Amino acid sequence: YPPHQPYIIRPMTWWAWLAAGLVLLVLELVTPSGFFIMFFGLGALTVGLLARFDLAGAAWLQWLIFTGASVGYLLLFRGRLQARFESTTASGVDTMVGELVMAREPIAPGATGRVELRGSQWTGRNTSGSAIGAGQRCRVVGVDGLEVSIQPE
């Protein structure tokens, strides 16, 4: 612009808002952002749709709508989305407590040995005061990494 004309912020076109929104949604899918970026993508899509029907107005209003919609979506839906996905992504290790295992070798009190749990071999630590014999059934009382704490049944 020539120096005598003030700088005017031009509104983004509706398709630019939609493209930005789609890019942000894809970015959410390919990065471990913890459900943040997608809400800004939804905000951009909202402004894009409003701008498509000439409801978004001037540039400052488009950016205001984008910010408000993005923060609104974030506050309304992020907690629910996280709760839904966190409850289904548990590894299942904590659910082993109470399961039955079979000792594959004798295990003295306080010692470790091989046990079979859910069809695979694990290291089991005998946390009881009595020895465990080979082939004896035991119960898992704790999990520490790849080692299960067991006691005779």
What characteristics describe this protein?
153 residues, alpha+beta, five-stranded mixed beta barrel, rod-shaped
Please explain how this structure is put together:
41% of the residues lie in helices and 20% in strands. The radius of gyration is 29 Å and the shape is rod-shaped. α1 packs antiparallel against α2 (37-52) and α2 crosses α3 (59-88). The protein is built from 3 helices and 5 strands, in the order αααβββββ. The chain has a 5-stranded mixed β-barrel with strand order 1-2-3-5-4. It has helices spanning 14-30, 37-52, 59-88; strands spanning 100-103, 112-117, 120-126, 137-144, 147-152. By secondary structure, it is an alpha+beta fold. β1 (100-103) and β2 (112-117) form a beta hairpin.
Residue-averaged pLDDT, rounded? 87
Strands in their spatial order, largest beta sheet: 1-2-3-5-4
Number of helices: 3
Number of strands: 5
- Rg, rounded, reads 29 Å
User: Which series of helices and strands comes N to C?
Assistant: HHHEEEEE
Q: Portion of residues in helices?
A: 40-55%
| Unreliable stretches covering 5 or more consecutive residues | none
Principal-axes geometry comes out as rod-shaped
Task: Give the DSSP E fraction (strand runs of 2 or more residues).
Answer: 15-25%
Biggest sheet descriptor: 5 strands, mixed, barrel
Q: Decide which structural class fits the backbone.
A: alpha+beta
Instruction: Report how far the terminal alpha carbons are from each other.
Output: 84 Å
